[in-house]
Specification:
A hairpin with a 4-residue loop joins strand 13 and strand 14. The radius of gyration is 26 Å and the shape is globular. Helix content is 45%, strand content 10%. It is built from 24 helices and 14 strands.
């Protein structure tokens, strides 16, 4: 006797979700199983109804397979995306990020190959469905059976809502009720509800323009805004009294009473100096060798030396890395934050603040000028002149190789700004970009012989060799600054956008035997803040990450700025700091908190607020309200 197609549809979606959670989260809680059952019943009922409306069994069978494919693609795609980026993609990012994703097709394909075992296991239920399809009943459904399935959908949905509403009064900001109704937190949502319910909720929220709800206890601490703090004269009381939008009022209240950073002994030490700020694609502390990359070694061991600096990866890879570097805000899950900011008032961004302080602002990128919409986002941030391959840089460097040369870019653009009274030159590099094989990486081909005697596998050697190009670029830059008597008057800042996900788990562990791929230490990196007038290294042990760079620089340059309006903190200021990761885990001097496993922590709400207000600043275009 043939088994009903509903049973197979149900088992395919159920088992794939269970396997998915085991692979990603290494557990399946009772709550997850309950939600997984309800979402699998609802999904399989819908597929079964829609695929069995004709009298033609072959057509019904084909329809069933077609309707199953989106669920399979989403689950497999999220598995690969998580292995590649340590995060899940959203419905919006799937719609808007196809161009960017295709740029990494070869590497994503390699990731699929490396995770073939997990993918095959995930596909196994569907494979069995195809093999045994002749034993499955695809006959046209009777009206009575359709009504039975519709009742099953209603009962399952009602049961799921009952579980969600059972903790409506919970004080946990990540309760099931808040995850479903108020908070956008896809990683924990996937762990709790399952990936199918999480993605369907994401689609629903996309069409209703969902925004995080502000969940606060309305307890504020008055701050004494005297000259000891980095604050400006913002009359929040007037802003609150003249505002009708509830969210904006709550934001005014939050920033009014947020603790500002204290000025310190380093305040203004770089006043009126120039700044060369470099976001180094995938650059990593473990690839820096004293005898092979001597300039990088010198920069990371002089000036300010940050022993506990991290460059966490966020949801949109390099674009989000730049966003944190240039805005001091956490990226927003489910969107391309930098692109979304392109119509916003970004008055507190790096170039805008330097422009306000009478600096000429330049931006350079040695790859396609409009990738990640940089031709739109950079000018909106405050860069007066932006040059990349396709809008002028191709006249100065060879843009027909991959990846392009950082050495050529820094060397050939230096004359643009060297004669300005005060300048900010920003570089987004590409020479250290994946992948690291000699067959399709011109920088690896150029430098691989310089590292051939090191005891590493070929891919790791390729990765290290790409740092030589950046090292030579920095060596030339420093020599040019010396030659023009600008070195003492110029600050060099260098940090990564994210960890080198172009290396496999084993290769990352090979590069640094003290780390495990799943550990937060893969994100531990360096931050260079260097000026030749600093006579000896200044060692900083505070915990920090990309979002903390801007407030630190604004204080060092003695800018008049309001530290409350940035989500990051001055690394040299009040406390021991905090590193926040994309799944809302965090590290402090005393705590290593795993948001997916640990139940409680007194700083969990603080991390929630940092994500919430970063998101609201972006979505509400909040800075335009600040007079």
């Amino acid at each position: 006797m043939k088994k009903d197609s509903f049973i197979y549809n149900f088992l395919i979606i159920l088992l794939m979700q269970i396997f998915f959670n085991i692979f990603i989260f290494h557990e399946c809680s009772l709550i997850f199983i309950l939600f997984c059952l309800t979402s699998s019943i609802i999904s399989s009922c819908i597929i079964t109804i829609l695929s069995r409306l004709t009298n033609n069994i072959t057509i019904n069978k084909i329809l069933n397979i077609i309707l199953l494919l989106p669920f399979i693609i989403i689950i497999i795609g999220q598995e690969v995306h998580y292995e590649f980026y340590n995060s899940f993609f959203s419905f919006l990012s799937m719609l808007s990020g196809a161009k960017q994703v295709m740029g990494f097709f070869n590497t994503i394909f390699a990731c699929i190959i490396n995770n073939a075992f997990y993918i095959i296991v995930l596909l196994l239920p569907f494979i069995l469905f195809i093999i045994f399809n002749k034993k499955i009943n695809f006959e046209k459904l009777k009206l009575k059976t359709i009504l039975y399935y519709i009742c099953s959908i209603i009962i399952s949905f009602t049961f799921a809502l009952f579980i969600i509403n059972s903790d409506k009064n919970s004080k946990d900001i990540y309760s099931k009720y808040n995850l479903y109704n108020n908070v956008y937190y896809p990683t924990y949502s996937a762990k709790t509800f399952g990936i199918i319910k999480t993605f369907s909720l994401d689609i629903y929220r996309y069409f209703i323009n969902f925004e995080d709800k502000i969940i606060t206890n309305d307890v504020f601490n008055e701050i004494n805004n005297d000259n000891n703090y980095n604050v400006t004269n913002i009359n929040f009381d007037d802003l609150i009294n003249n505002e009708k939008d509830y969210d904006i009022i709550k934001m005014h209240e939050y920033f009014k009473n947020k603790e500002p950073s204290l000025k310190n002994k380093y305040t203004g030490i770089f006043k009126d100096k120039n700044l060369i700020f470099i976001t180094g694609e995938s650059v990593n502390i473990n690839a820096i060798k004293k005898d092979i990359t001597p300039t990088l070694y010198m920069l990371t061991h002089n000036g300010f030396v940050f022993n506990n600096f991290y460059t966490p990866i966020y949801y949109a890879s390099t674009s989000d890395g730049e966003y944190t570097n240039l805005t001091g805000l956490l990226p927003t899950e489910g969107t391309w934050s930098m692109i979304k900011s392109s119509n916003n008032n970004m008055k507190y961004s790096l170039p805008a603040m330097f422009k306000t302080n009478d600096y000429k602002t330049y931006a350079y990128h040695n790859n396609t000028y409009n990738f990640y919409n940089r031709d739109i986002t950079y000018p909106n941030l405050g860069f007066e002149k932006y040059t990349a391959c396709g809008n002028g840089l191709e006249k100065k460097i060879n843009c027909n190789i991959w990846p392009e040369s950082d050495l050529e870019m820094l060397n050939e653009t230096y004359n643009d700004y060297k004669n300005d009274d005060k300048f900010l030159a920003y570089y987004m590099t590409v020479s250290t970009h994946l992948n690291y094989k000699t067959t399709n990486n011109d920088i690896v081909k150029k430098n691989i012989n310089l590292v051939k005697d090191l005891n590493y596998s070929s891919n790791v050697l390729g990765f290290i060799s790409t740092h030589i190009e950046l090292d030579k670029a920095l060596e030339n830059l420093i020599n040019n600054l010396k030659k023009d008597n600008l070195l003492d008057d110029t600050v060099i800042v260098l940090l990564a956008d994210h960890f080198p996900y172009g290396l496999s788990k084993n290769e990352l562990e090979e590069l640094n035997k003290d780390i495990k791929y799943d550990d937060s230490l893969i994100h531990k990196n360096f931050l260079v803040i260097y000026n030749s007038t600093l006579e000896k290294p200044i060692i900083v042990d505070n915990y920090s990450s990309n979002i903390d760079v801007l407030p630190t620089l604004y204080n060092l340059f003695g800018f008049d700025y309001d530290s409350r309006l940035l989500i990051g903190n001055d690394i040299l200021s009040n406390d021991d700091g905090m590193v926040i990761f994309n799944d809302r885990s965090f590290i402090t001097k005393d705590t290593k908190y795993n948001a997916l496993n640990d139940k409680t922590n007194d700083k969990k709400n603080l991390v929630y607020e940092k994500y919430l207000y970063s998101r609201l600043i972006l979505e509400k275009d909040y800075y335009k309200y600040i007079k």
